[in-house]
Amino acid sequence: MMCWIIPVLVGLLCALLGYLLGRMCAEGKEKACKEKYEAEIKRLKEEHAQYIKNCQENHKKEEGILNEKHAAALLLLQQAKSQIEGDLDISRKEYETKVAEYEAELKKLRDEKSKIQSEHEQCTAKQEALTKELEKLQGEHKQCSTKIEEQAKESESKVRKLREEIAKMQGDFEVAHRQKESQLNEKHAAALLLLQQANDKLQGELNEKDNNTQASEQYEAELRKLREENAKLQEDLKTCCIERDALRPVFDGTKAKEVFGKSIKEDDLTVVEGIGPKIQELFQSFGVKTWKALSETSVERCQEILDTKGDSYRIHNPKTWSAQAKMAYEGRWQELKDWQDILDGGV
Question: Side-chain half-sphere of 313: how many Cα atoms within 13 Å?
Fold first, then answer.
């Protein structure tokens, strides 16, 4: 494609060479230089003609190769076109099917969108109504909270007063219980003493009856009288025992289980925080077998019992054991549980 540039360059070089040779040659040498110049030009023209010929031949060869490649490319292009047209026919059908499916899906989505918009509008209206209702409820809640706080304060004040009254009543009950129990014990001892005296008197009179048969009628009268007195004393003794038992707290296993979440046996010393099965066995060996007995045992006595087993038992602190046992004996389970929640090893 660039073969024409070479002759032009050769012509320019020849012209430049002629000009230079003309300048260099003198007048005497002008003819020889001219001949030399013409011969050089002739040679260059021959080379140029040969080069042109070679270029033309190469051009024809390259043009033939290009034509062959072009024909092959056209053939491949034609084949590809045919295949693409076939694929396009198939793709067009698939495309039309897909378009129909997409249009149906689009219609369905539009219907769903309309339905959702309608539901959204309904929800918005409901939300506005609920918002207004919520604001109303918040106002009422605020008022209720104020009332509840006031009632809570009032209730706390009442609870404190009730607790003080309960504590006072428990103190009064304990004092009355001790006094009543002491009185009953005194009556019981007196009744036993009277009964013993009556039995002794009756035995003496029986002995006298054996020695004196003449006073049998008087003796029988006195004996009936003594028997009546004995029966009355027996009745009084039973009454005292009943009253004493009535004053003794009744063990309520159901209530204890509700508070502690497990079954509690009566007079189980392990209920006391800090007492385990081994310590319970130790105390029972010293006669402390019930909650009442433990509640009446001093801290010093408890420590003495622990000291009998050496250092492994001496380290326990029985400071609160009597008070805990008293609560268990009196059935104050919730109070005992609340206190044990803040104790650590019975302390």
Answer: 18
Instruction: List CB contacts of 329: < 8 A, sequence separation 6 or more.
Output: 249, 290, 291, 292, 295
CA distance 287 to 21: 154
Q: Is the dihedral of CA 147, 149, 150, 156 positive or negative?
A: positive
- Using the structure block, give the residue that is written with the tokens 């040779």: 21
For 229-272, the pLDDT digits (tens) are: 777 777 776 676 566 555 567 788 899 999 999 999 999 999 99
Nearest to 331 by CA among 250, 246, 243, 270: 250
- Using a 10 angstrom Cβ sphere, with 0-12 exposed, 13-18 middle and 19 or more buried, the burial of residue 49 is exposed
List the structure tokens of 87: 């694929």
Separation of alpha carbons 55 and 41, rounded Å:
20
DSSP state of 251: P
How far is the C-alpha of 260 from the C-alpha of 20, rounded, in Å? 131
Give yes or no for a contact between 191 and 233, defined as CB atoms under 8 angstroms apart. Answer: yes
Helix/strand/coil for 118: helix
